[in-house]
């Protein structure tokens, strides 16, 4: 099976939650955990508390776009999970990107 750089299974998310480090701010939470692969994998979690399906899908699209623009700055061999918080509904793309970059620096998963 081809690895595509995404966390999909519940056990993958649970491993990151239980053994990884978390950093958070007002609009999102970032969990990170070193893996034994040379590849970086990412997963997104957007709860029904955020809103209806249209809103949740918009947040996931924003997460994917922020990650796409900034993934070259991140270290490889890391599992990352992004969790949305309620204020993300009113946040702009730039606010989400700034939050993501700040949390990546805080979690020390940015290349030197």
TrEMBL record:
InterPro entries: Ribosomal_Su5_D2-typ_SF, Ribsml_uS5_D2-typ_fold_subgr, RNase_P. Pfam families: Ribonuclease_P. It is an enzyme of class 3 (hydrolase). One of its GO terms (cellular component) is ribonuclease P complex. GO terms for biological process: tRNA 5'-leader removal. Keywords: Endonuclease, Hydrolase, Nuclease, RNA-binding, tRNA processing. It catalyses: Endonucleolytic cleavage of RNA, removing 5'-extranucleotides from tRNA precursor. GO terms for molecular function: 3'-tRNA processing endoribonuclease activity; ribonuclease P activity; tRNA binding. Its EC number is 3.1.26.5. Belongs to the RnpA family. RNaseP catalyzes the removal of the 5'-leader sequence from pre-tRNA to produce the mature 5'-terminus. It can also cleave other RNA substrates such as 4.5S RNA. The protein component plays an auxiliary but essential role in vivo by binding to the 5'-leader sequence and broadening the substrate specificity of the ribozyme. Consists of a catalytic RNA component (M1 or rnpB) and a protein subunit. This is Ribonuclease P protein component. It comes from Halobacteroides halobius (strain ATCC 35273 / DSM 5150 / MD-1). The gene is rnpA.
């Amino acid at each position: 099976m081809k690895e595509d750089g995404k966390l999909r299974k519940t056990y993958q998310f649970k491993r990151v939650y239980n053994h990884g480090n978390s950093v958070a701010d007002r609009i999102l939470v970032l969990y990170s955990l070193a893996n034994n692969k040379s590849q970086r994998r990412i997963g997104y979690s957007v709860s029904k508390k955020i809103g209806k399906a249209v809103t949740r899908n918009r947040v996931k699209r924003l997460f994917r776009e922020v990650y796409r623009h900034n993934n070259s700055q991140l270290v490889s061999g890391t599992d990352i999970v992004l969790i949305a918080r309620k204020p993300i509904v009113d946040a702009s793309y730039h606010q989400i990107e700034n939050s993501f970059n700040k949390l990546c620096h805080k979690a020390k998963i940015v290349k030197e």
